[in-house]
Amino acid sequence: MNEFYKCALCGQIVKVIAEGKGQLVCCGQPMDVISNFKSVSEILDFAIEKEEEARQFYLEWAGKLENKALGEQFVVFAGEENKHKEKLQRVKSGSTFKPAAKQVTDLKIVDYLVDIAPTPEMDYQEALIVAMRREKAAFKFYNDLAAMAQDDGLRETFLALAQEEAKHKLRLETEYEKEIYSEN
Ligand SMILES: [Fe+2]
Ligand SMILES: [Fe+2]
User: Fold this and answer.
1) Dist CA 148 CA 142 (whole Å)
2) Do 54 and 30 belong to one domain?
């Protein structure tokens, strides 16, 4: 059995590869087990939280970058993440997203989390890696939600979100490659 635990304080995720005795502790408190989603609103809240994280990432780095054009691009992305968040909030309040209960509880939270947590002291390259993985996870998440949507309008909404995240990921990858080559 492979269980995942997350620290509610620092965000560290731990995978259990062998069962032992005792409790997993991080930052001085017991870690929470990461399970499957329990309800549609939990799924949407998770998506909303991830959009907010992405928005903050782009805004934070837009202010730090020397490359003006890229900074402006990041501000645009932050605006797009904000629109995604608003879209999800509308989906949540509209309650038209009604996947079957089994589809909801089969969805594993850990499939949409990235395996490295951002830290305040990470450099631009490391931050890009976290961001690329998040965009990839977001892309997969929205594609999976699209497959669970019962009406066409909602399916299109999720597919459009997936496409925008794919576009973000591609832009970050291009930037990451430039960073790597400029160092050698
Ligand atoms: Fe987004
Ligand atoms: Fe994105």
Assistant:
1) 10
2) no
Report which DSSP code applies to 31.
P
**Residues, Cβ < 5 Å to ion ligand 2:** 54, 135, 165, 168
Domain CATH number, residue 23: 2.20.28.100
The ligand with the least distance to the CA atom of 77 is 2
**Which domain covers residue 9, as residue numbers?**
1-34
Distance 15 CA to ligand 2 centre (A): 26
Give me the number of domains the chain comprises. Answer: 2
pTM more than 0.70: yes
CA distance 74 to 57: 9
Centroid of ligand 2 to alpha carbon of 13 (angstroms): 22
Please tell me the distance between residue 54's alpha carbon and the centre of ligand 2 in angstroms.
6
Q: Which ligand has the minimum distance to the alpha carbon of residue 170?
A: 2
Residue in the structure block whose two tokens are 């609103």:
41
Same domain, 105 and 48: yes
Residues 81 and 1 in one domain: no
Ligand number with the minimum distance to the CA of 171: 2
| pLDDT tens figures, 169-181 | 999 999 999 888 8
3-state secondary structure of 162: helix
pLDDT single digits (tens) 109-143: 888 888 777 777 888 888 889 899 999 999 999 99
The residue type at 50? K
Q: What is the pLDDT of residues 77-114, one digit of tens each?
A: 999 999 999 999 999 998 789 998 999 988 888 888 88
Verify that 79 and 15 share a domain, yes or no: no
